[in-house]
Amino acid sequence: MENTRDKTLGGALISGQGPSGFVSLVGRPNVGKSTLLNSILGEKVAIVSHKPQTTRNRILGVYTSNKGQIVFLDTPGIHQPLHKLNEYMVDVALGTLKEVDVIVLLIDGTRGITQEDRLALDRVFSLGRDRPVVGVVNKIDLLKPEEKERRTNELQDQGPFTRVLALSALTGEGVNTLLDTLLSILPIGPYFYSPDTITDQPEEFWIAEIIREKIFLFTRQEVPYSTAVVVEEIKEKDGILVVEATIYVERPSQKGIVIGHKGQMLKKIGEAAREELERFMGIKVYLNLWVKVKEKWRKKEGALRELGYRRPPRVSH
Ligand SMILES: Nc1nc2c(ncn2[C@@H]2O[C@H](COP(=O)(O)OP(=O)(O)OP(=O)(O)O)[C@@H](O)[C@H]2O)c(=O)[nH]1
Ligand SMILES: [Mg+2]
If we measure between CA atoms, which residue out of 54, 173, 155 comes closest to residue 105? Predict the structure, then answer.
């Protein structure tokens, strides 16, 4: 994975021609957008959790096969924002609607069409007007065949979709049909990225995300939402990757929760993140975690930027 992660995306590396273009994965929080991206790429590029609003940034993932190249943009879930951070997240998601060739809108088949799905549908069919929209009913591994059909028909009725399909991002069932559908819609042209590129994320960002995922898994209520992670330094020393990272929270009480009784929580977060980093990167990792308070950072523009929540540049097109 690390071989491709750092690849520069200069024109010189690009070779190949066929169906190619940009596809945005959108929908309300928790429908399985990031799970689908990872399933398509066969790599953990985006973090996933059972809690809504896990993804906060646009995550680029490149799928290349002998049939073509699809540049996916995984996005934060579309919701009614309450904080500046949430405004940023929704902005990022909506921003992709105007820069892609095809929009894939997901719903969770176990839940039917919720109020938040309606918000996402409304934004997609207004802002993404004139672009093909493929509807996806996800999580069919949890559905009976008749429920799958009912959900697919319900989604079909919500707007002028180019096509609606049902799949399971978790088991992979139906994912190839989605890929074939997208390849049949995308224009023919040169590839945008080298065929061995999977993502453009800097290593620091990906490591910070893995740590944040563990915080989402192990902490509750406001704590995961009030947390940001910044990787300050990565050094390789005697075959060990030494990572210095800071976990930012909004209040001293949250700092206490993240550290936990006798440091137990921080240890649990650190161990889970370290194990995963070692597994994916194939190198021994020493993870040094610090916890700091940055008062109300989710509400402050400057603090958001400091913590890495800046508008991504437009994808080249
Ligand atoms: N059973 C089942 N669970 C799934 C499937 N796809 C995703 N999930 C679960 O749904 C939850 C949310 O998945 P994510 O991929 O984080 O969802 P998301 O849409 O990226 O969520 P946000 O980043 O919060 O917008 C996780 O617990 C996943 O394991 C699926 O096909 N089947
Ligand atoms: Mg996500």
Answer: 155
